[in-house]
Design goal:
By secondary structure, the protein is of the alpha+beta class. The protein is about 40% helix and about 25% strand. Strands 6-5-4-3-7 form a 5-stranded antiparallel β-sheet. The chain has a 4-stranded antiparallel β-sheet with strand order 9-10-8-11. It has a two-stranded antiparallel ribbon with strand order 1-2. Strand 4 and strand 5 form a beta hairpin.
C-alpha cells in the first residue's frame, strides 16, 4: 500500500493536470476517503503549494499561481519533451542572458529521471544529428524580454535604451507590435512615434526596457515575422543585386528565403504559357557575390542580371566550368 507521502505527491500530480477536481473524484483516484483528501491538501499548503479550495456542490481543489513554482510532477513523456525542448532551444540559440538557466533546469530533471528513462534519453541524444551548426546566441536580458512581451500583449508603450550596430546609444519610446525569434536572435517590431515609422530592434542590444503609462492601437494585420525578414533582406551590404527571373514569386521564394531576397512578381506579358510567361524581380543585398551563380542556376529558370556587372562575369565563368565538367 502506498505511504501517505506518496499519495500526497499523487494528489499534486492530479491537480497539476489542470482544472477543478472534486473531493469525491480525488478520493476515488487515491483510494482514500474524502477526509483524508482534505488532510493531504493541507500537507500541500504547508509546503507552500498554492492549492485552492472551492466550496459548494461542485467544489473541490485546484492549483492557482503562487509566489514561487511548486514541485513539478512530470510523466515520462513530459520529462522527455521538456529535456528535448531545452536541447533544441540551446542549439538554436534561443535563450536569455541567463544562459545557464536552461542547463541547470536540464540537469535537475536528469538527476531525478528513472534510470530506464535516462537511458532512453541518452539513446536519443547520442543518435541525434543536426543539419545546421549551433547558433552563436545573442541573448537578451531576461527582464528585457519579459517586459517587452508584457508590453506587446497589453499594447503598452515601452521606453528602451538601445545600442545600435555602430555603437551609438539612444533612449526612445517604442510601441511594440510583436516578438520574433530568427536565426538565434530575438527581435521586436513596433512603431517609433518620434519618427512616425515602423522599426525593428534586436533585443540583445536593449540594455533596459521600462513599460510606460497608456496604451496604443497596433496596426491591423501587421506581420512581425515578415517585417523582420524583409528588413534583413533590405539591410545595407557591400553589393546590391537585382535579377529578373522567369518564374512566379512562389517558385522563387521556395528557393530564396525571405531573409535573403525580396521578390516582386511583375505584370504578366500575356504569354500563352501562364506559368513560365511570368517574370519576377529579385533584389538582394550581399557582402559576397561568389555564391550567387550556383543559387541562380538552382532556380532552373531563365534570368537576366540587371546589376551588378561583376555578377555577369561570375555567372559566365560558372557556366564555363559546368560545361567543361559535362564535356569531360
Amino acid at each position: 500500500m502506498p505511504r501517505p507521502i506518496a499519495r500526497v505527491l499523487m494528489l499534486l500530480e492530479l491537480l497539476q493536470s489542470g482544472g477543478l477536481r472534486t473531493v469525491a473524484e480525488l478520493a476515488a483516484r487515491l483510494d482514500v476517503d474524502e477526509r483524508t483528501v482534505r488532510r493531504y491538501a493541507d500537507h500541500l499548503l504547508d509546503l507552500d503549494v498554492p492549492v485552492e479550495s472551492v466550496r459548494g456542490r461542485h467544489g473541490g481543489y485546484r492549483l492557482t499561481s503562487g509566489y514561487r513554482m511548486p514541485p513539478l510532477m512530470l510523466s515520462d513523456d513530459e520529462a522527455l519533451a521538456v529535456l528535448l525542448g531545452l536541447v533544441a532551444g540551446q542549439r538554436a540559440g534561443l535563450m536569455t542572458a541567463t544562459g545557464s538557466a536552461s542547463e541547470t533546469a536540464a540537469a535537475k530533471i536528469r538527476r531525478v529521471l528513472p534510470q530506464r528513462l535516462g537511458h532512453r534519453l541518452d539513446a536519443v541524444l547520442g543518435s541525434l544529428a543536426f543539419t545546421a551548426p549551433p547558433s552563436t546566441p545573442a541573448a537578451p536580458e531576461t527582464a528585457v524580454l519579459l517586459s517587452i512581451a508584457d508590453a506587446v500583449r497589453h499594447h503598452r508603450p515601452v521606453s528602451i535604451k538601445y545600442t545600435a550596430a555602430d555603437g551609438r546609444h539612444s533612449e526612445r519610446t517604442l510601441h511594440p507590435y510583436g516578438l520574433v525569434a530568427h536565426a538565434g536572435r530575438w527581435y521586436v517590431t513596433g512603431g517609433d512615434p518620434a519618427v512616425g515609422e515602423d522599426r525593428t530592434f534586436r533585443l540583445d542590444r536593449i540594455a533596459d526596457a521600462r513599460i510606460l503609462p497608456g496604451t496604443f492601437d497596433p496596426p491591423t494585420g501587421f506581420d512581425s515575422a515578415e517585417r523582420v525578414l524583409s528588413g534583413l533582406a533590405s539591410a545595407p551590404y557591400r553589393h546590391e543585386v537585382t535579377v529578373r527571373v522567369q518564374g512566379t514569386a512562389e517558385h522563387i521564394r521556395a528557393r530564396l528565403p525571405a531573409g535573403v531576397a525580396l521578390v516582386e512578381e511583375l505584370p504578366s506579358e500575356g504569354s500563352p504559357d501562364g506559368e513560365t510567361g511570368r517574370w519576377s524581380r529579385v533584389e538582394m543585398r550581399v557582402d559576397r557575390l561568389d555564391w550567387l551563380p550556383a543559387v541562380l542556376a538552382s532556380l532552373d529558370r531563365p534570368f537576366t542580371i540587371e546589376r551588378p556587372d561583376e555578377l555577369r562575369g561570375l555567372v559566365a565563368r560558372f557556366a564555363a566550368r559546368l560545361a567543361d565538367s559535362a564535356s569531360g
